[in-house]
Amino acid sequence: MRARLAAQVADGGYYEAHESYKTLYHRLRSKKKAAEAMDVAVEGTTVMLGHGHVRCGEELAMLLLESCATDGAMVDAKSVGRVDEILGTWPREKVDEHALKMDALPTHVDGALKVIHAAIRWIEKAEKEQVDAVDVEDVAAKWHHWIATFLCETVGTALMAEATPHYARARAPEEFAHALLEVAKKGDKEQVDVVGVRGILEMLVVNQCDDAEQMRIKFVEGLEDPSLMETQLGLFGKFSITAIKRKSKELFRMLCQKYDQDIKRDKGVKNLCNRIVQAHFGGGDNPMGMLGGLMKAMMS
């Protein structure tokens, strides 16, 4: 039947085949044949993607991943391999970033974001007894890297705000620095330090201190004028790496006080400082969203 469905898609009957893939998937699940059902979902996804039917492929992929999360499916080499197979066949057509509409992303970009978020959510919420012979953090980093590079390859710097949190978790500091340099080149010189420091702080939120330092060094080295990072805000970013590496609440508090006016230059930098406090020093929710609230949280 599966061979017939693949042939049907090739002949243009993709809608009927798509419905049949879903029916077969649910039938196998109802018979407690979970592994076979997953294989059908992956096969259907890759067949659909291979013929340019991205929405159909996305729906089958999401069906698989949502079931994995709901059923508490094992996170092992086989299940990770299924997701890798889907990602490996995902179309990477380039889009004119100047014509990009944020409220209507291209189908393959929107679908990729949905699928990767579902995949990462599934493995990161898995209980210890659901993991077999794989390192969840390594797998998550690999998938974060996949979507970060996918976004940069397909839409350039247009979705860098979406790519940045993924790069921060991807264990690829040099690639992250290169991506940020592309952003910096397209902006004002006065904002270069903001671009670099945002990247640093995003990595510190998830405690990637060593990677943050490597990224900072490569970012500075890649600038035509390295002095653009020798600003007060640039120094704040540099010293913040030391504070978080030392797990020093007091040092980070002092830095936030000393560079208060520089931090306030950019709302994104202020928000990242709040997130660092919440992640590392138990600051809790900060409804004010301002450094005043951050200081209150840190000193409590």
Structural account:
The protein is built from 16 helices and no strands. It has helices at residues 2-10, 14-30, 34-50, 54-71, 77-88, 107-124, 136-155, 160-168, 173-186, 192-205, 209-222, 232-245, 249-258, 260-263, 267-281, 291-299. The longest helix is centred in the middle third of the chain and has 20 residues, at 136-155. The radius of gyration is 22 Å and the shape is elongated. The chain starts with a helix and ends with a helix.
Give a brief description:
It is built from 16 helices and no strands. The chain has 300 residues and is mostly helical.
Instruction: Indicate the proportion of strand residues.
Output: under 5%
Alpha-beta classification = mainly alpha
What integer is the average pLDDT? 91
Largest sheet: none
How many strand segments?
0
What is the ordering of alpha helices and beta strands? HHHHHHHHHHHHHHHH
Beginning-to-end CA distance, first to last residue: 64 Å
Question: Which value, in Å, is the CA radius of gyration?
Answer: 22 Å
Count of individual helical segments: 16
Given as residue ranges, the uncertain stretches (5+ residues, pLDDT < 50) are 284-290
Shape: elongated
Please bin the fraction of helical residues.
over 70%
